Amino acid sequence: MIDAAGLRVMRAIAEQGSFTGAATALGYSQPAISQMVRRLEQRTGTPLVDRVGRTVRLTEAGAALARHAGTVLSALDAAEEEVSAIAGLRAGRVRLAAFPSASATLVPKALALVRDRFPDISMTFTEAEPPESLAALRAGECDLAVAFTYAGDDLAADSEDLDVLVTEPLLRDEVLIALPPSHRLARGTGAVDLADLATEHWIAGCPRCRGHLLTMCDQAGFSPDVSFETEDYVAVQGLVAAGLGVALIPDLIVRTTYNPDVVIRQVTPASRRDILAVTTPDLRRVPAVAAALEALAEVAASPDLLPTFPGDAASVPEPELDYHL
Amino acid sequence: MIDAAGLRVMRAIAEQGSFTGAATALGYSQPAISQMVRRLEQRTGTPLVDRVGRTVRLTEAGAALARHAGTVLSALDAAEEEVSAIAGLRAGRVRLAAFPSASATLVPKALALVRDRFPDISMTFTEAEPPESLAALRAGECDLAVAFTYAGDDLAADSEDLDVLVTEPLLRDEVLIALPPSHRLARGTGAVDLADLATEHWIAGCPRCRGHLLTMCDQAGFSPDVSFETEDYVAVQGLVAAGLGVALIPDLIVRTTYNPDVVIRQVTPASRRDILAVTTPDLRRVPAVAAALEALAEVAASPDLLPTFPGDAASVPEPELDYHL
DNA sequence: CTCGACGCATAACACGCCGTTATATGGTGT
DNA sequence: ACACCATATAACGGCGTGTTATGCGTCGAG
Q1: Which of A108, B149, B174, B255 has the fewest CB atoms lying closer than 10 Å?
Q2: In a domain, B128, yes or no
Q3: How would you classify residue B89: left for phi > 0, otherwise alpha for psi between -120 and 50, otherwise beta?
Q4: Range of B23's domain?
């Protein structure tokens, strides 16, 4: 029945003492005020102004509206300001979820970058494996997830989730082979042929990584003998170092938690996991989320972290494989 | 940029958890909500809801709007309620101004009637002679004035004021003649011929009453010898009782402040003053003012006060003139 | 796994609010 | 008395905001 515009007009009339004054104060024409008051009067059913001669005065009801205008309009301004602050990156919150090995360098650097640029954006971080982080995204429990997908195999499986989500590629993470130093292939150069490891004992990582291992070995023509499974890649490397088996291990993990007692080599057929940022189409357009996303992309693209992701294979420098030697 | 309707929608979405729920809660159709949200989003420049699958969730900005909605809308409701109370006679104030001799019976009875019917209407009363009360009306210092005009002569003079004001006739007040008991005409019956008093000493009342005296005497063919002037009709009657002169005195005054030591008789040519309620066209439509006006009219029309005003002369009962005898 | 129900988005359309300019009317002061 | 100033009215245009009809995608159940 009564809206903010009406209150604004009534307040301006009270302050200016005339329709014309109110009109100029609000940037309207005089008839606009005249009609607005008339509409308000026939809505409320009672006169709001007392027109005597060429002067207008507020009636009791009109004065009541003008008096309430301050309360309503300042509350409205507060609401607008809060939204404007969120839109203008002067406020806001981003709930980020990432898998453990991304938490080491990628996420901290991105968080620092966002904090640097927009000190008023508060960022919270949760560690979660891709399946859970995407579930959290869908459940509205986080705004941005750093996840990975193994190129080729379970990308199709993820598409079930990814169709309603938007993804931004961050890094291409080469999958390498970890061998005990005593292994017969530990001292060669170049890539190790996966088929040469058909009879090895295998140590698998997280469930998805295990799935990828099975896929790759299948392509190489054998089924791996998986002796151990653990999500902890420190443990994986420990197991390998102890000579209990070999393991596929992503480059990013090696770079962050490297055990000097294992040998890392490239493997053929080459394989990688794609690390990407995931969010919903709507959240993608939230300025704070967009800023965090861009920071992630920048950090991922910076040469002091890892090779850029979307470039073609030729432009990607060879991974330094001499971790050990 | 943001209006109350938008906040109402956002709050409903927050409470109901879906567009459809919000729509039914607000009595709208579902697309109305959908479009409203879209408009708000493109106005604020940031997503307000996160649509994932067939569920919607508020973003931070949307939640901010929903959170502010309570403040704004309750303030708006308070404003509406206050106006509604004024329109519904559950609140309000009427500032009444009346000339002294109306304050005796007409005004108190009307005030009592209003208080009876609408206990929450506060009425204030100021005593003022017609010129000042009309000035107060024009100056916005009162809402309703009880004034009088002498029929015929200064009605034209008042029209200058009365054109922008609206009047409601209340009473016709016969103008009578007050004589000392010792006067040669004190014992007759019927009306006294004004021309028979051409050589008397005259006592005049308020300035407007004095003007009316001059007009009447002029019509009767003489110019009165005005010996005293006072606005106090108690004094007028005292002067007459002391034999210092004769005076024209309205019936209403005699009825309220009658000095038994004077004789009151009708006079020819007959004359009267019209007592009327005056306000502005706008204030006339303010419910509280209208209620006060109606109360005044009812009191004026009630037979236990004085004869009705607008009736023709035939229907007006003869004034009781035997105040003294 | 398919099907039906549910919820949001979009299209097309109608109405009324709310501005505008042009003009009339009436009060005020020199 | 006349010019100025303030409000009222008329006519008109835009768009905000509702409607119904319809499509599409998702979630749950047989």
Answers
A1: A108
A2: yes
A3: left
A4: 4-87
